[in-house]
Amino acid sequence: MRRSVLFVSLFFFFLMQFSALSSQINEAFYDVIRSSSTDSVRSLAAELESLESPSSQDQVYLGALYIRLADFQKVPAQKLASFKQGRELLEQEIEKWPKEVEFRFVRMIIQEQAPAFLNYSGELEVDKGMVLEALDVMEPELKKEVELYLQRH
User: Fold this and answer.
1) What pLDDT score was predicted for residue 35?
2) What whole-number distance in Å separates Cα of residue 21 and Cα of residue 144?
3) Which of 3, 59, 64, 132 has fewest C-beta within 10 Å?
4) How many CA atoms lie within 13 A of 33 on its CB side?
5) 87 and 117 in contact (C-beta within 8 Å)?
6) What whole-number distance in Å separates Cα of residue 146 and Cα of residue 136?
7) Taking the CA of residue 146 as centre, how many other CA atoms within 13 Å lie in the half-sphere pointing to its CB?
8) 3-state SS string over 22-85?
9) pLDDT of 9 strictly over 70
10) Does residue 17 register a pLDDT over 60?
11) Predicted local confidence at residue 12, as pLDDT
């Protein structure tokens, strides 16, 4: 009995720690993606890269950060490589979780901001429709980010 209580207590402790870390990364992601600080983008990307078992959300964030890092690259080949690496991560996770609204929101942001010559806007209307349709039922943190984005764009 005592072992069970200890196990349950430890489980909830780790669950709370993971939840707090996930929430911190979530909040940091949207702050960093809006920033023009190369160091902030690199730092969060490094933090996500160092995770032993990244979640799908972590992978989506990392993909978006790689795409954001492309903005800071000087050499065109490096810009394209960073963009492609990020797009691949993002698309893999959306393929696994096609109904995940936050993933579609992240891709929507990228598609709206991507230069036309990259030809990365094919799912923009679908993603935008999905995000707008889910606005009333999404988690408050995500809803806040979506509304903030929509006000600015």
Assistant:
1) 86
2) 19
3) 3
4) 23
5) no
6) 11
7) 25
8) HHHHHHHHHHHHHCCCHHHHHHHHHHHHCCCCCCHHHHHHHHHHHHHHHCCCCCHHHHHHHHHH
9) no
10) no
11) 36
